[in-house]
Write a structure and sequence with these properties.
heterodimer, A: about 550 residues, Cytochrome C Oxidase, Chain A, B: about 375 residues, alpha+beta, Cytochrome Bc1 Complex, Chain D, domain 2, five-stranded mixed beta sheet
């Protein structure tokens, strides 16, 4: 602890370029500092959250009433496609990489990421990829409109945008792979000597596993879209029956990527929840090692369940049954996690600051999404649920009030550490309650719509679906507007927040739960240039 | 001919009348009208209740804790963080529940998959954006498009609530007999579609170049509606499915009449200009509007405009050839009969909706030499 303070003093007194940030805007272009890059990732993700959100608002506005009001069906399809791509690759994944950049070195007692220059490159490649993707909106024939899964043959009907969209997927893939390599290298090589693997905070553990998932799957996705490219422009027939190919082959490859991909967005979520809940329950995390094993089990299972996205595609009966059983198994480790979080709260001394509120809402609402996931794992019943609003409700429950809520929680939890300022708790709680209520008005009715027979990805619908769609849209508009409060809070906190001086540990006894709380607030530009010797560990 | 009219009127009436639920909304899955759909419904309810039960247990515990174990009530935090027994228990119990679920699920899956011993077969082909039905046993063969009222309403912005079964009605419904095991074979002509009628309990993808199978046996006469459920492009939301199940006797009559109608030579006698325009609009709404749009303006960068197009307003013979042969981007419309073609061409050259005003009209007889009937 004293070594850290000495380091901090050293930074303050020497205005040396090698130690401090670059002056001016160039700092943000050429930086190799994990904190700067983390900030870039987080701000970029926040911006894309609003871009993807604006697309969702277009979708909900068109679906407010039956009949076509605002957009044409083609543009509507572009909106659903781009909303998904922007949210997945532009918002949620980069936000977690941003958190990893900021927190992993500070959590394991490392001075920076293992590969700082590659870190910079992977961020800027992400920006290039997302901008290229966004530019397809303005191309002849419009942006891709075949769904984020890019299924052929439909996606091959895309206009001029197709090769650009494919190249953007390549860029995003390279960026993710570099990010993943960097995170794995950092965790495996740069831990403080006393930081053994089974002492690592769960956020670090979940990201280590996520990193391996990313390295395994992104090349598969890149391969699939490259085959689309050659089918379209170089007369191959990977996915065209007329040349001996099979369009369903694409779906197998895509979902071999796609299923682990959705876990890329949820495993770090588990990690953050496991970090926040113990702090506000004032109790160690229950079942640390079972949490680690459950995460690994979920990651492993994610590779062998892909065809549950394809139950109605015409699989042989053996395939239907195998993928049903394998998918059901996921409920077991996921259940263990939910039970562990509940047990962590049990007999704690809980307080309910904004990060804790978002985390509790995550546990409850993610579990709801898990229940519908369990329902859909049952293959014969999925013959009814598949491609309806029921699944739209399911995956939005596992992404919005789960991944997004936990990203919000992480923002409230670590902003005081990053900025040295306290956020406005009242506005934070207002943001929470508005979000938690409206997200349910938005997505819960979609279960009813799906069960009643409304297919997904349609711009217009029969009259009997009108009421729930209108309610869902109203929830959507409230949810969308509420997020502006978060934007305000982030800006306000950076500018000084409540003006209250925050302590180094920020949250009561937080130093027992993680190394980052032993550092000063705000965190100096360089930390842990000498590794810490005492590791807080609450689960020995 | 008279009989045909009577029957098609009857079919239309029953399509409109049997289901009067208009603004009804449902909260839960429909039980449907087949044994399989009922089994699936039971399975759905079983798992739903299991989830509700687990949810009450977990959330109950959590909210008890949130209420009682809070700092503001002076609760002191315990320090336990491990309990192997508890961990084993909450791994084993879910495993047993899953096994309990898997057994009926496996049974239902086997049942759903068994297409053997069917009484008749229907081939279903998904196309952008309509369905084509072929009865493999008796040669009945027709296309099923979104009905004209919905087609117009969703394009010109009129009030959908005035349209009966908005977006869920078709011009030619699929007619099946009750109590017979019907085997469906699915394929597609262009992109992947998916055929779903919730009351039958399942959906099945129609993949281009491949055949999928499924079966149903409807127990109750009635009209059952569904939609395409695999995103298939621009008008994915506008290719509904209507299945009418009738008693065997009625079905047999329907087959007879449909076959007679199907084999009739097209009526090539001269038509009045109004007739040509009205028939032309019907053909246009069914075959052309999806791409070229209701105002003939097409979609920039994707579908060319008919409005002001020299191809449309120029000489007639090349236009006929163009429509019949198609291009690399436009499908061939050789299926259009002379009377339909004449009406269509008159319509696109003269309709104020399309925005062309050539001032001519084309009679079916005048295009006979070009028409190649196979």
């Amino acid at each position: 602890m004293s070594a850290v303070t000495a380091e901090h003093a050293h930074d303050d007194h020497h205005d040396d370029h090698a130690h401090g940030p670059e002056k001016g805007w160039l700092r943000w272009i050429i930086t190799t500092n994990h904190k700067d890059i983390g900030t870039l990732y987080l701000l970029f993700a926040l911006a894309m959250f609003f871009v993807g959100g604006a697309m969702a608002m277009v979708i909900r506005a068109e679906l407010f009433e039956p009949g076509m009001q605002f957009v044409n069906p083609q543009f509507f399809n572009s909106m659903t496609t781009m909303h998904a791509l922007v949210m997945v690759f532009g918002a949620v994944m980069p936000a977690f990489v941003g958190l990893a950049n900021w927190m992993i070195p500070m959590m394991i007692g490392a001075p920076d990421m293992a590969l700082p220059r590659m870190n910079n490159m992977s961020f800027w490649m992400l920006v290039a990829g997302v901008l290229l993707l966004a530019s397809t909106l303005f191309m002849e024939g419009g942006a891709p409109a075949g769904g984020w899964t890019l299924y052929p043959p439909l996606v091959l009907q895309t206009g001029k945008a197709l090769p650009f969209a494919i190249f953007s997927v390549h860029l995003l893939g390279i960026s993710s792979i570099m990010g993943a390599i960097n995170i794995i290298a950092t965790i495996l090589n740069m831990r403080a000597p006393a930081m053994t693997l089974m002492k690592m905070p769960l956020f670090v553990w979940t990201w280590l596993i996520t990193g391996f998932l990313l390295i395994a799957i992104m090349p598969v996705f890149a391969g699939a879209v490259t085959m689309l490219l050659t089918d379209k422009f170089f007369h191959t027939s990977f996915f065209d029956a007329a040349g001996g190919g099979d369009p369903v082959l694409y779906q197998h490859i895509f979902w071999f990527f796609g299923h682990p991909e959705v876990y890329v967005m949820i495993l770090p979520t588990f990690g953050v929840a496991s970090t926040i809940i113990p702090v506000f329950a004032r109790k160690p995390l229950f079942g640390y090692s079972s949490m680690v094993y459950a995460t690994a089990a979920i990651a492993f299972l994610s590779f062998i369940v892909w065809a549950h996205h394809m139950f109605t595609v015409g699989l042989p009966i053996a395939g239907e049954l195998y993928f049903m059983y394998a998918t059901m198994l996921i409920a077991i480790p996921t259940g263990v996690k939910v039970f562990n979080w509940t047990a962590t709260m049990w007999k704690g001394a809980m307080t309910f600051e904004t990060p804790m509120l978002f985390s509790i809402a995550f546990v409850v609402l993610f579990t709801l999404g898990g229940f519908t996931g369990l329902m859909m794992s049952v293959a014969p019943v999925d013959f009814q649920y598949h491609d309806t609003y029921f699944i739209v409700a399911h995956f939005h429950y596992t992404l919005v009030p789960a991944s997004i809520f936990i990203l919000m929680a992480a923002g409230y939890y670590w902003l005081p550490k990053w900025t040295g300022h306290m956020y406005n708790e009242k506005i934070g709680q207002l943001h929470f309650w508005l979000s938690a209520i409206s997200v349910n008005i938005l997505f819960f009715p979609q279960h009813f719509l799906g069960l009643a027979g409304m297919p997904r990805r349609i711009p217009d619908y029969a009259i009997q679906f009108a009421d729930w769609n209108m309610i869902s849209s109203i929830g959507g508009f409230i949810f969308g507007l509420s997020q502006l409060l978060f934007l305000w809070i982030v800006i306000d906190t950076i500018k000084g927040g409540t003006g209250e001086k925050v302590s180094d540990e920020v949250w009561e006894d937080a130093h027992k739960h993680g190394l980052e709380w032993t550092l000063p607030s705000p965190v100096p530009y360089h930390t842990f240039t000498t590794p810490p010797t005492v590791i807080p560990c609450d689960h020995d | 001919m008279k009989k045909t009219k009577q029957l098609s009127a009857g079919v239309t009436l029953s399509a409109l009348g049997l289901e009067s639920a208009h603004a009804d909304y449902a909260l839960n899955l429909m039980q449907g009208v087949t044994k399989v759909s009922n089994d699936i419904y039971d399975l759905h309810m079983l798992i739903l209740w299991i989830c509700v039960f687990i949810g009450i247990a977990v959330f109950g515990t959590m909210f008890y804790s949130i209420y009682h174990h809070r700092k503001s009530k002076g609760h002191k935090a315990a320090n336990f963080h491990e309990n192997t027994t508890v961990e084993i228990v909450w791994t084993i119990i879910p495993t047993l529940i899953l096994i309990g679920m898997a057994i009926p699920a496996t049974k239902a899956m086997m049942e759903l998959d068994d297409v053997q011993k069917s009484d008749m077969s229907i081939k279903v082909t998904g196309k952008q954006w309509y369905w084509e039905y072929e009865y493999l046993d008796n040669g009945v063969h027709f296309e099923s498009h979104l009905d004209a009222a919905s087609e117009k309403a969703h394009r010109d912005g009129s009030d959908p609530s005035r349209i009966p079964h908005y977006l869920l009605n078709v011009d030619n419904p699929l007619v099946v007999p009750v109590g017979k095991k019907i085997r469906f074979v699915f394929t597609a002509a262009d992109v992947i579609h998916s055929w779903w009628v919730p009351d039958l309990g399942w959906k099945k993808d129609a993949n281009p170049g491949f055949i999928n199978e499924a079966w149903t046996q409807v127990d109750k006469p009635g009209v059952y509606r569904g939609q395409c459920t695999e995103l298939c492009g621009r008008d994915h939301g506008f290719m509904p499915i209507v299945v009418i199940a009738m008693e065997q006797g009625d079905y047999d009559k329907w087959v007879q009449i449909t076959l007679v109608k199907q084999n009739e030579k097209p009526d090539l006698s001269d038509q009045s200009r109004e007739q040509l325009m009205a028939n032309g609009e019907a053909v246009y709404l069914k075959n052309c509007v999806a791409c070229h749009q209701i105002d003939g303006k097409g979609a920039e960068g994707a579908y060319p405009a008919l409005r002001g197009s020299a191809k449309v307003t120029g000489s007639v013979d090349p236009l006929i050839g163009f429509i019949q042969a198609g291009t690399s981007r436009m499908p061939a419309f050789a299926k259009l009969k002379d009377n339909e073609l004449a009406a269509l061409i008159t319509y696109i050259r003269n309709s104020p909706d399309i925005g062309n005003k050539v001032g001519d009209e084309l009679q079916p007889k005048t295009i006979t030499p070009v028409y190649d009937d196979d």
